[in-house]
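Re: the pair you flagged

First of the two:
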Amino acid sequence: MDLVTSVAGLLVGVVVGLTGVGGGSLMTPILVLLFGVAPHTAIGTDLLFASITKLAGVGVHHQHGSVDWKIVRRLAYGSLPAAAATLAWMQMSDAARINGGLLISAVAVALLITAAGMLFKEQLHALGRRWRTGTPDQFKHLQPVLTVVTGVLLGVLVTLTSIGAGALGTVLLVYLYPLRLTPKLLVGTDLAHAIPLALIAGLGHLWLGHVDWALLGNLLLGSLPGVVVGSLLSTRLPGAWVQRAIAVVLGLVAIKLLSVA
């Protein structure tokens, strides 16, 4: 048992349960920058870590009725085939052995996009609300298609970098469902969708040999109790301030990653 690694898992687990954000966005940079894990191993290990950690959290959200399963299905229609196709491309094109510097750069860009989306989440929510109330028939007609397209985007991004299922997913859902998703529903729904996506992507990376089992076990020792605690807190505490702080941290981490890529 590595106590430091388990503590890192605990802290990330609490954040994931509280906000639905932080699995890949926080853990992958932590593994690369603080623990010196190779980028491809960090991504593969983190994907399995995220799927198991979020499984513990979504049970709490489901018990509190804070999961919209219809939206989860729409996202999965796009994300799961996209993840499988991305894994197949990585294997056939030998992209699984891509240079570590390029992987770090890809992770950094994903973090910057995620941080920007989180910081401007309220503006996107307002934009989606105006579209929803201004042209309701057109909005409701396009909503299912746009949700599937969002799933495709998340499937590709998460499989390549392990980032996006939580942080970017919540931002896009706020825009697509400005009236339907309350803050509690938003966190629970995003968590529920992230589980099968991270699991499929993680199993694909396992097949490619990108998972460190000892590291994964130590992370889970901390994250499983952490995500349950965070999920319970999310039903009582507003997580908006936590997300803003995370966005700033992600931006700074992205800059650091680009400097070492």
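Second of the two:
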Amino acid sequence: MIMRPIVKAIVVLAVVATVVHPAHAEVVNRIVATIDGEPITQIELERYAEVAKKRPGGDQAVVDQKAILDELVLDRIIAKQVEALGLKATDQQIDNYIESIRSRNNLSDEQLREALKQQGMTWDQYRVQVRADIERANLINREIRAKVNVSPEEIERYYKAHLDEYGTSPKMHARLISFVVPSDASVADKAAIRAKAEEVHKLAADGGNFAKLAKEYTQGPAAEEGGDIGEVDPKEMQPEFAKAVAGMKAGDVSPLIANAQGFHILKIEPGSTETHRPLAEVSEEIKEKLYKEAMESRYDRWLNQDLRARYHVETFL
């Protein structure tokens, strides 16, 4: 990397000005980066690193100086862009932001200050951080958010390409014939009930009129309606029923189903088999997802390419 003459001069001056006794030559401050010729010094970097450690999730251990410098450079670039576009945060905006944080967490002013103190952050440092957060949000809103849009066509294309994400259990229009086994039934009585159920099941499976058989034999619901119990969702059925109807289609008769209540026969009738949530129902959900993805993509490109390209940055670590 070739430094411009003025930068070289600044670097030399910084080194000369910080040399201690020749026997113990030591650089206590030096230029570690420049943005359009404006220097960032080692001391500024160290101060920034100390503040970064105190942020939520910050590492109190040794930090990667190059990564911290990159973050500091980015913060300076954002500050320059905020200044250039007149997006500086006002004291009132900072006060309102802090008040919203305090209210959301049910903290008094004293409690908030104590919480910051425990994190090793002064009130002034906190206000500086809040100011930076607001100004960054202002810049993002202007440079990115207002330029991201998700069209109805994009939503529909995503929906069609990801139908499996919006599947629902197919609802089955069913008829039911039930033979109830009383709780006090003897072994012989239970065997007789099962035999009758098997007889009726054979008639139904061989194409007999299911509705007529239900009216004649069922002890379950909707006997007068030929055992018509309407639409049912396999996911809401008892396990024995859900297992029996798995893979069944309209016109099929289930195997004989046995459970604690007795013996049962189901027939699937033509009816609603909607297997996907309609587009109108999931449109907003898809829009939010696509908008978030577009924001993240545009933000990353803007932050790491577009914004940096507006400034000449040199680093010397």
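Confidence is low (pLDDT under 50) at residues 1-27.

-B.
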